[in-house]
Amino acid sequence: QVQLQESGPGLVKPSGTLSLTCAVSGGSVTSSNWWSWVRQSPGKGLEWIGEIFHSGSTDYNPSLKSRVTISVDKSNNQFSLKVSSVTAADTAVYYCARQGYYNMDVWGQGTTVTVSS
Amino acid sequence: EIVLTQSPGTLSLSPGERAALSCRASQSVSSTFLAWYQQKPGQAPRLLIYGASSRATAIPDRFSGSGSGTDFTLTISRLEPEDFAVYYCQLYSSSPPLYTFGQGTKLEIK
Predict the structure, then answer these.
(1) Where does the pLDDT of residue B95 fall: very low under 50, low under 70, confident under 90, or very high at 90 and above?
(2) pLDDT confidence of B65, banded at 50, 70, 90?
(3) Chain A within 8 Å of B84 (Cβ-Cβ)?
(4) Contacts of residue A72, Cβ cutoff 8 Å, sequence gap at least 6
């Protein structure tokens, strides 16, 4: 079955760029699914960040759109997230997820990112 | 943006009891786009229900979803010890594409 694993730095400095990767195993990032990033912070609960299809098509949460880029790497069967100009408000657990039928049916275990100097 | 409001914030029940968790949308939505998740401490959310009433793979039949329009309910018929967790509803909106979550209901052991 499909498994997802997030990776990336756990600490990012304010005004810097947060970069995470989600490795897909047991399946292909070029399947018919879209792939999402979701974050969870104590202050804002679960927040959808955006999604990507293997063609490169993306959709972003309007509240984050100006700072977020999601990309796909078909050769390495993974997709990535970048959030620029981070502040303490971007401190959260970041999850990658596979999208099913208007839901997220497979999730990674999550990775904690702290924004601090 | 459509807002999802879950109630109650915390529900205290005993194993064997029935639980009913509410999710209310700020405007009428298609039930096709409503899902429910369970999250335990230190774990990722797990999909329970999609399309408002369809159980996801391997979800026990004590979990059921219902509702339409603005009011949706997740029901757990007989609580097992492993069911005590936080539950979230989630909505997909298409213009623009956006997934939103409710603030969650914590189901705790009484």
Answers:
(1) confident
(2) very high
(3) no
(4) A29, A35, A52, A53, A54, A56, A78, A79, A80
